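Sorry, explain these tokens?

___
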Amino acid sequence: MNRGIFLDRDGVINQIVYHQDMGILDTPFHPSQFELLPGVDKALTKINRLGFKAVLVSNQPGVAKRHLSLKNFWKIDQKMNKELAKKKVSLDGVYYCLHHPQGGDKRFKKICNCRKPKPGLILKASKEMGIDPKSSYLIGDSLTDIQAGKSAGCTTFLLGNHKCDLCKLMEEKKTRPDFMAENLYQAVKLIENIETKRG
């Protein structure tokens, strides 16, 4: 069986965007807004050197909410892959959930098993790519990522600058990451240390 490092997208691979007209922080709604975070290329290189598959697992309800067109969604995905290729790295698998239970676009208005915090995306990727989730890791920037990773049996990493309100939310949700890190590269370095100690 392969081992994987499952990655959320927005806030892990790329910058989260402030949409001034809507007053929200969210995913890019247009390819021009997509920007890789610093150090992502180094992190992906290290993931592969450690013998893991780098697999993106991301909720993307923007089309369902009519924030962007399906065409622009796939253009953003293409830009991500092109930007990674420029840095001579790539993802081994990409899995998106486009659903939202209150979506305005009927094509994607659905209660599904793939939308995190449910583990469906991770389990689907694991099945299709021959990955053992219980010997794998998940790196995300929200508690829904952590819940999905734990449900699938992964060791979890939460990224970001963590404040007291997040600690309270962790208590309410009874969900705690196994580790915390400031960014993707730092998380992957911690995984390298864990793997080295395991021998």
